[in-house]
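How a chain folds remains the central question behind the approach discussed here. The record that follows shows the chain in one-letter code together with its fold in token form:
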Amino acid sequence: MAKAAGIALALAALTGGCSSIRDHRGYLVDQTLLDSVQPGIDNRLSVEKTLGRPTFISQFGEMDYYYISQTVKTPPFRRPQTSEQTVLRVRFDPAGNVVGVDKRGIEEVARINPDGDKTPTLGRHRGLLEDLFGNIGAVGAAGMGGSTGPTGPGPNGS
């Protein structure tokens, strides 16, 4: 009986260490506060007092406020993966009054998968041996006589 309990305890300890770590990053969305922001009534100052400082403010076009919230899961021995994401956008008119509040989720995120592990480049494809020994005899060949260096004539004017 004691041996079975020891095995169960060891198994629980092993599987407990293999669970994912869940982490929240960014703005904590409070739906009650978000619902209290009213278009036509609130302005930039009242939005900052209600929702706090935005994650960032748009740099081009209208000065919209963005609040970003992410929940990230990190499985054991793997890279973190975003499981939930919310982007709140508060739009303002030129006078600084709220025009609308938009809420987007992770379904709007574009997933980009690069093609392969290498970036294609123009030019020759050199192998390892060419990289190692390709410059033998070419390094310093133009300046072997000492007449000119990489910055021009030598110190004696030759």
User: Anything to note?
Assistant: Helices lie at 2-16, 31-36, 44-51, 128-133. The chain has four helices and seven strands. Residues 2-16 form the longest helix (15 residues).
